[in-house]
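This part of the workshop introduces the protein records we will be handling. The question running through the whole workshop is how a given chain folds. To make this concrete, we reproduce a full record directly below:
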Amino acid sequence: MNPELLSTTTPAGFPILSLLILLPLAWALLLPWLRTDRMVRYVALIGAGLELALAIAMLLSMQSAVPGMQLVERADWIPSLNVHYLLGMDGVAALFPPLAALLFCAVILASWTSVQAMPRLYFALLLALESATMGVFCALDLVLFFLFWELTLAPIYFLISLWGIGPERRFAAVKYTLFMLTGGIPLLFAFILLGLHQTGTATAGNLNFDYLSLLDHRLPAPQQTAIFLLLFFGFAVKTPLFPFHTWLPTVLREGPAGLSAILIGLKLGAFGILRFALPLAPDAAREYVWLMAALGLFGLLYGALAALRQANLRKMLAFSSISHVGLVIVGIAAMNLQGIQGAIFQLANFSLVAGGLMLLAGFLHHRLGSTDLASLGGLSKPLPRFTAWFLLFGMAAIGLPGTNGFIAELLMLLGIFQRSPGLAVIALLGVILGAAYVLGFFRQAFLGPATHPTVISALDLRPRERLIVGIMGLLILIGGLFPNLTQKVTASAAQTWAARMAPPPVDLLDTGSALSLNPSGSLP
């Protein structure tokens, strides 16, 4: 398969991607004008529901056999810098907008009664964040992507600092913002280098921020190295990868449950690595594949071991997220079809599994005022429905057969094994540790006698909460029992991505190059 097919385009007849980005923003601007808090909640939910319907329509309009970009929208934006309003969608990203829209709907429903202070501002910020997130998934101009990337900062800062549940929520908001601003610096430098790569001069005619055009012009090796490292470490901060992970446990401990579900359910940093860092610098990626594999593997094991030691459900989920995304990075580092399909599948699963678990943690905190093990124990008796759903989501998190987590982890492990059997064995150890901390916490929090008064008198899931976890749980089972539904969407684009990352063929007639051949990027 020709790797250049990755940059082929199918223009959009209807600007569905623009609507995906603008609809939540327009709805956010509408909320402050509503008269009652009850109306604010219903209108916010209607807006999020329309966004979900639009995202599903976008997914259904995609042609799975087309590996390149579809629904492409292009218009001049800043002609003096040769910057365009350029949007597009392919099989690599197609699953993320619908699942993100579903997660935002779930967060709005989950916040229905738990958010009493300034609901207009709260739901408006959520919808503004959804708008910027859709822009991250759709943007194909580097400047436009960076704009959406940075626009996610302001809503998150205010959501943490104003509606966080911990005493250090303002510190958590500042810490998150500083980490993201720091990660944005190497991204900006990388995008500038990419824009200048043709001639090195900053005249408007020579600048090029078009992702599709950049894919067709392979950079020289020294430039690839600089750009890959800048992109990889810039995106690693938001992923987060070790050692840039410290903001996540702080934010998940102090921030509101709904935002926490979004942060661990939508791995925008890992998406950036997948979309930009590797395809734009494939030779450098193969050379530094050991770095990706090492950081991913260390994060996988470190996150699992740290999760084993946590006595708070929210912090356990934070370190679990670090561990799981580490496995995704190792799967991407395999640079083969199974590894990339498993990584895409797992990134999509995070919206349902990790996001669902964090929403359940929020439900628990709303009832008991804490998610510490010291305040739990015996939850299965007063909360049987809650227990059943938590167990299902937990089994998906550890990759139980029949759930979507099993298919994703199996694909990634197969891809890693093809690259390096030794790495696959170590990765499998991380998966086993994941089962240990999930089952260990479940045993301590849900089994045994209920002795705490607040636990004994706690109410089980309300109808609104059952609707949230029921839809997400159903999708978890559908993804596990009918994985071909997901694989059909990603197959062609994943094959082209893997073909682009394959090393170029060696001319065996060139004796000098054949004798000096050293397969770069091989894992130890």
